[in-house]
Amino acid sequence: MRFREFGGYATSALIAGAILCSIATPNGEVSRHMSAGPRNADILVRMFPPEPTVMAEIKKGSAETLRIAILGTLGAVILSIPLGILASETMVARAVFRPVRTLLAFIRAIPLILVAMLMVGAVGLGPLPGIIAVAFHATGMLAKFYAEAIDGVSRAPIAALESAGAGPLVRLRHAIWPQMAPVVARDTIFRFELNLRESLILGIVGAGGIGFYIQTYVRSFQYDKAASVTVAVVVMVIAIEAINVAMRRRFT
User: Fold this and answer.
1) Cβ–Cβ < 8 Å for 62, 236
2) How far is it, in rounded angstroms, from Cα 117 to Cα 125?
3) In whole angstroms, what is the distance from residue 235 CA to residue 223 CA?
4) Count of CB atoms within 10 A of residue 222's CB?
């Protein structure tokens, strides 16, 4: 009991020390933040009113962003189905699911921006590297969710089919899938929403989407046009979130 109390105090002390070290900013940094106030105010003034003449670019960028999110999610689902089965201790032996889970953890550890930059270098500019990057990065999370959904089902129907001599695929189809389908639908919708949000910034590294126009306008000091694109991004995210909430309620 005393050891647990000491461990709790030590953990709290480490967290508090990390927070204090993060807050303790050098004086030069504080002065820079203070002097940036007028420049930030000038940028905000130049953003209003938003420039409405960029609607064509907004439509093109929004369509490209949706395409990246949709196709990236589709690719992740296709990859996650077999990987999720192989990462499930219910379906395969320990010698199989342990390495697969390690692989999925490795995929999740790679930042999406880094994957997008590598794909841009490999296949060039445009939405294709964004689609590949989103599909690759989302697979690490989605396959893990699918494996957890398989492992979280009731064991009774599985045991009944096993006693009847059913194989893994039969157990998956008739005992596991009916129980995990709502969870899979919920997790897939959640990941699509996350993919859409991440797709908004991929244009910064040349991987397509509406983020490309935000980068272009900010770098050319056209803050009123950047404001228009930002408003479109906010509207798109709110609309997609509302749709996803309605879909999650339907499937759960």
Assistant:
1) yes
2) 10
3) 18
4) 18
Q: Which residue has the tokens 């500019």?
A: 125
φ and ψ at residue 188, rounded to 5 degrees? -65, -40
Contact 78, 132 (CB under 8 A): no
For the entire predicted model, the pTM comes to 0.76
Nearest to 188 by CA among 247, 240, 101: 247
| Assigned token pair, 146 | 């699918």
pLDDT 10s digits, 162-203 = 777 777 778 777 777 778 888 888 888 888 888 888 888 887
Identify the helix (H) or strand (E) that includes residue 177: helix 177-199
pLDDT tens-digit map of 66-75: 899 999 999 9
Phi, psi values for residue 124, rounded to 5°? 100, 180
* Pairwise CA distance, residues 103 & 91, whole Å: 17
Those residues whose C-beta lies under 8 Å from the C-beta of residue 151, and which sit 6 or more positions away, are 88, 89, 90
d(CA 72, CA 237): 17
28 C-beta neighbours (distance < 10 Å), count: 8
Which range among 73-77, 123-127, 132-136 shows the weakest confidence by mean pLDDT? 123-127
Residue 48 DSSP label: -
